[in-house]
Amino acid sequence: MDNERGTVRSARAGLQSAPPDRARPPRSRHPLGAPPVPGSASPWILMYHSVAVEQEDPYRLTVSPERFAEQIGWLYRSGRRGVSVRELMRAHALGRDDRLVGLTFDDGYADIARYAVPTLQAYGFTATAYVVADLLGRDNGWDTEGPRKRLLTVQEVTGLAGAGWEIGSHGLGHRALPGLPPEALAVQARESRRLLEEAVGGPVTGFCYPYGAVDLPAALAVRDAGYDHACAIAHSPLTGRFALPRCYVGDRDGAWRLRAKQGRHRLRDAVTGLRHARREPRP
């Protein structure tokens, strides 16, 4: 399975249900206490990281500028338009996302400003950059085996926002959230949002879990911090507005592989939807 750094931590789900109140309509049994993303299926979201030329890429996070241009060109020729997750979610709620695909860039590598932005602008596309709020202008020290990559500065982040990109939070320190105590989860979600809103001068409504690792306490902390949506990687019992699944994209992915990945996303989404439906209480 394609995933970030080869490890996607399985989501933990399950809240003990309170006794039913016959005076109220039955509640959703989705772990977050709300139905999954409105609509018949989760929107299609692609997960990128770095766009650059690298001799060593042990985590397979880098797509060359040439391959990236091919991938974006294929989306355009197939009648799709790349957009931010914020725009995608708005369109999805209205049932108008059929030809849209979410484009996301995790970690906030500085090379996306040099290589990804011009390519996307040429097609009228936008995207979401999920940045680590307290590491702007530094490097990816969490990748112990990978090449050091410079991260976007505050000025570069504001430049992306000015170019129509969505800026989302990737937490603080690029720490995996599952297992953190409630106080630390609250700081990760709220403080990262505050720092980014100060930087861009506007609301930050999207979150992305570092390493794609999400469990129920983490998702609840993100929801309670006031975010509108959050991205994970894999389909799971938490799949929905605060654990949106995404398709990893690497340098080996041409048109055929992207089509196959879209088909696999739809299949997994259908299976997940059936599982959600089985857990819903009957009227």
Automatic annotation (TrEMBL):
Q: What is this protein called?
A: Polysaccharide deacetylase family protein
According to its UniProt entry, one GO biological process term is:
carbohydrate metabolic process
The domain of life is Bacteria
One GO MF annotation is:
hydrolase activity, acting on carbon-nitrogen (but not peptide) bonds
Extract one GO cellular component term from the record: extracellular region
Instruction: Give the species this sequence originates from.
Output: Kitasatospora xanthocidica
Region annotation Disordered: where it falls in the sequence: 1-37
Could you tell me which residue ranges the NodB homology domain spans?
A: 99-283
